[in-house]
Give the backbone structure.
Amino acid sequence: MILLDGKKAFDFFIEKIQYETDLIKKNINESPCLCTILVGNNYSSKLYVNKKNSICSKIGFKTHFIHYNNDISEKLLINTIKKINLNKNIDGILVQMPLPNSINTNNIILSIDPNKDVDGFHPENLGKMALGIESYISATPKGILLLLEYFNITIKNKHCVIIGRSNIVGKPLSMLLSSNNDNFGNATVTLVHSYTQNIETYTRIADVIIIAVGIPYFLKANMIKKNAIIIDVGINKIFCKKTNTYKVIGDVDFNDVKEKSSYISPVPGGVGPMTIIGLLYNTLISFKKKIKYGKTL
Ligand code: GUN
């Protein structure tokens, strides 16, 4: 079994991003700027936004952080986003999800300028991706593609089973992996979800399994074939009685599955760090387009 070490891949790609950023800064004394918006005080969301901002700062990206209370109105949030859309100094906008129930998430996504939608959530970007037109690919799918690339895993000709059909992971990934592209696509993709009966019928014939369901220990060794490639996108916080603390685990029963798999990504330290790489690449792309054409993608 080979561990798909996301921290190692992260170090490799961050160096490339930093090199490019430094080069541009030397030439024109400008650097990319990411605007993050956090609504409410969800502990994990706060942690993720802080992490993104601290890595941005480390590699010389500028950051602009906006924090609202849970009770902010949808209208005010949209007005803020509209202002940022027009701000030429900001290259990327990220509204941390999930948002409070009082806010319609789709309305927020629709209000973001697709040229600054470095999350790749806007229908214009999702639609372009579906058609194979250059667009922002959302951070998690992009991070997974880069993780596979780093470990020289091609999925062409392979049977990929994706468990979970979220707009952020499962749906875009199913489009990307089945697209007519030899670099990251041309796989046969089966997308299974909560209404699929006998999921193990599909997972047992999969060469690659990508799971994002938010259920700890969901994938067991008896659900996979020998030497399958396992990518765990799950992030679940569970209470550990032994240590009296919370710990983060994935959707895969790692200890059960690891010896039967050929490659497996751990949680933490697998897909997680790579999602940040996906986001930084998108922000850099937006910034480079602005420099080249005076506008973003
Ligand atoms: N919450 C969990 N994952 C993501 C992500 O990729 N982008 C945003 N904006 N929020 C998230």
Notes: The CA atoms of residues 55 and 167 lie 25 Å apart.
